Recover the amino acids of this structure.
């Protein structure tokens, strides 16, 4: 194999491909990139067996072929190069990397030992606007469980709707839901509910340097999901588990509703969380006619209250939450005006974006002694 590439483009492509390289693997070949030169393009692949990434870029190919190259060292070298082009050439069990002033030699592992990322691309089920997909995911991904005891909760539910998708994530204590991710074409009637690992979804939303729509494919034979945008392909394995019946825990109505500024509430929660650290991280909401009182107390430290201006509809009420859940939710929102709804201190509290029915975030309350 002998190819010549534009250095800046190679640097850019390697940055994303490195996301699938792990330092903890027991298979030496997984510490390498797979390089495949054919049809005037170089295909670079990486995998940690959890996700796989393949990117492609134009190349001047003098000799086609395939080889693997140590990923970390090669990336560091390429990111340090300043020349306009870089030439990669195999020589026996080694590969030479040459630029205008630099020549390096890497030991390699045969390309035959590198696992195949996927056999076929599968059935295309949607084309999604990348920007709206990123925005939707930012509102749900943080609610995914980090525990492995319940596999379904470590992924994001993607459920077909009439005009797009419904995205749902929960860890059993909170739930985020985003409706109607619009797609270019009508979804197939065979499209089923999918549970996609949160990591796969995060990587899919970070494919930012390609033009065109983000295309979603399903590979039923291998139980894989594949995202493609331009010359970048991301593949992962679907989670085979039963997602909880989340609709049962969403309150159908509310007795109390208050409109508040998200940034002001975030500041209030940050302040009161200081006093909540030594008291099980509990923060109390007291909903009053013209304000939301955010408070916390610790017998050994003291207490703190912050008033947040708000407009109440319904009866006055009180409820308590884990401060961490409030902080994570409020930090991941980029809208100014939100609403909070509740039906009692022992029922879930529901946050919404004002005048936007496509999103809700639910947090289970904490029982506190009066």
């Amino acid at each position: 194999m002998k190819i010549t590439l534009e250095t800046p483009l190679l640097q850019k492509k390697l940055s994303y491909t490195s996301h699938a390289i792990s330092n903890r693997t027991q298979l030496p070949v997984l510490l390498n990139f797979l390089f495949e030169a054919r049809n005037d393009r170089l295909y670079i692949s990486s995998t940690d067996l959890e996700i796989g990434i393949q990117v492609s870029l134009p190349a001047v190919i003098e000799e086609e072929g395939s080889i693997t190259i140590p990923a970390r060292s090669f990336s560091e070298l390429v990111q340090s190069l300043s020349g306009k082009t870089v030439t990669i050439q195999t020589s026996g069990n080694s590969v030479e990397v040459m630029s205008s002033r630099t020549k390096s030699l890497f030991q390699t592992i045969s390309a035959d030992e590198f696992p195949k990322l996927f056999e076929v691309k599968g059935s295309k089920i949607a084309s999604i606007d990348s920007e709206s997909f990123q925005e939707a995911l930012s509102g749900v991904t943080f609610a995914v469980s980090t525990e492995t005891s319940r596999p379904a909760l470590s992924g994001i539910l993607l459920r077909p709707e009439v005009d797009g998708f419904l995205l749902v994530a929960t860890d059993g204590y909170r739930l985020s839901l985003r409706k109607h991710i619009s797609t270019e074409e009508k979804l197939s009637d065979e499209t089923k509910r999918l549970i996609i690992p949160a990591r796969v979804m995060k990587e899919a939303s970070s494919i930012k340097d390609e033009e065109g729509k983000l295309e979603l494919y399903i590979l039923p034979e291998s139980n894989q999901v594949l995202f493609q945008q331009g010359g970048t392909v991301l593949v992962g394995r679907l989670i085979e588990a039963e997602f909880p019946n989340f609709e049962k825990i969403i309150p159908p109505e509310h007795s109390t509703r208050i409109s508040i500024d998200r940034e002001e509430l975030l500041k209030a929660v940050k302040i009161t969380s200081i006093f909540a650290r030594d008291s099980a991280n509990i923060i109390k909401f007291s909903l009053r006619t013209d304000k939301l009182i955010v408070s916390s107390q610790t017998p050994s430290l003291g207490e703190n209250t912050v008033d947040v201006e708000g407009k109440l509809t319904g009866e006055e009420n009180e409820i308590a939450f884990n401060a961490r859940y409030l902080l994570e939710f409020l930090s991941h929102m980029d809208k100014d005006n939100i609403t909070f709804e509740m039906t009692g201190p022992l029922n879930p509290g529901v946050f919404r974006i004002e005048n936007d029915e496509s999103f809700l975030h639910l947090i289970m309350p904490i029982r506190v002694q009066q």
